[in-house]
Q: What sequence folds into this?
């Protein structure tokens, strides 16, 4: 397997879809349905990219974002995903330093291409 991606989302169907698409491109995928799971996974094995939903069942996604930044530093790109497609959500994510923003529903292949681009850039 290639570079490692951490997907954090509470929707199992989306996790399954993205895992399938990313693994087909040779990437290793870790999936978390809660903020706590994501933080534990990132502490165990550092991902090359994080795809993070802002609405999680146990924690605010932006709080998870900030903790991941503290834990991983600024070298690991974090893409924010949210069902809240308001402009203020995008602005908030980008103001925090997110490396990209996707509003649901999104084109999964576009997300995969963006992740691949970020990994190539980091290499």
A:
């Amino acid at each position: 397997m290639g570079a490692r991606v951490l997907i954090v989302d509470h929707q199992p169907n989306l996790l399954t879809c993205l895992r399938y698409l990313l693994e087909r491109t040779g990437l290793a995928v870790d999936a978390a349905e809660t903020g706590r799971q994501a933080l534990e996974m990132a502490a165990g094995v550092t991902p090359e990219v994080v795809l993070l939903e802002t609405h999680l069942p146990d924690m605010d996604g932006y709080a998870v974002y900030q903790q991941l930044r503290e834990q991983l530093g600024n070298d690991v790109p974090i893409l924010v995903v949210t069902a809240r497609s308001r402009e203020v959500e995008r602005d908030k994510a980008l103001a925090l330093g997110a490396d990209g923003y996707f509003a649901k529903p999104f084109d999964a292949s576009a997300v995969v291409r963006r992740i691949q681009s970020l990994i190539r850039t980091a290499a």
In short: The chain has a mean pLDDT of 93. The chain has five helices and five strands. The first strand starts at residue 4 and ends at 8. The CA atoms of residues 63 and 81 lie 14 Å apart.
